[in-house]
Amino acid sequence: MSDLKQLLVELDQRLLSLFNSRSPKKASSEETSNVNITGDHSLKLDLLMEDEIIAFFREQDFPCVIEAEERGRTELVTDPQFLVITDPLDGSNNFRRRIPLVCYGIAIAAIPKDSSVADFTDIQAAAVRSLFTDEFYLALKGQGATCNGKNIWPSKRRKLRRSIISFDLDHAYPRKPDLVASVMNVVKHCAGTRRFGANLLDMVYVGAGKVEAMIDLRNNLSVVHSSAAFISQEAGAVLCTSEGKTFRGKLVANEHMSFILAANDSLKGQILHYLHAI
User: Fold this and answer.
1) 27 by DSSP, 3-state: which?
2) Are 119 and 209 part of one and the same domain?
3) Residue 214's closest CA among 100, 150, 198?
4) Which residue ranges of the chain lie beneath pLDDT 50?
5) Residue 213 falls within a domain, yes or no?
């Protein structure tokens, strides 16, 4: 497990160096002809970051397959032992607008011997780097989570009416009125909301105690964002589906995740109650 930690730390330094050298250049925020797994055109920096990740694991002779937002699946070996899943640049619209809330996220899962695929429960290690704010989140399975080497924990608030929550309803307003009404019923009973424009940050901030919950039930967000959910769960947060069941998303880039991430079971229960009270 320590080897996975060292891999993620070394990769972080390479990605941070690349970002710092390329992000000031205007061309980095230009769209390319590449269409990613969400149907959007990749930015030049999206592709540069993803190519650096692929090159790093190839140089390390790491026996893995890579599932990524920009190019989809890249097989580095014929018989992989691990699956790497990544969003190389989350918050692309923030980046184009020079809003300093941009990050990358990456998770490493062990592929079960009796299977050709891995799911969320197979993740062994993950990292999220907020590229403008100098926050490096890291977690190993069963060992808690850290930010810049210091342990993090979710908020201890247990009352929804005193909690700040994040939610994502992008593209849901005209198409999913029932979902919007359910989430808004939760919002009516909380202390306030925040939205950071990079889903990885919305999620990892639950584990870091900055917000009390993140809700995304659109079934539209790619599982390339699993890294942040894993980090928050390892920190002590509670992750579940809209029915309160264990989240087990399959780690394939074009699969979607729908989830509630809450600081504790008490808040999870209150969120589920108000979601289904409509």
Assistant:
1) helix
2) no
3) 198
4) none
5) yes
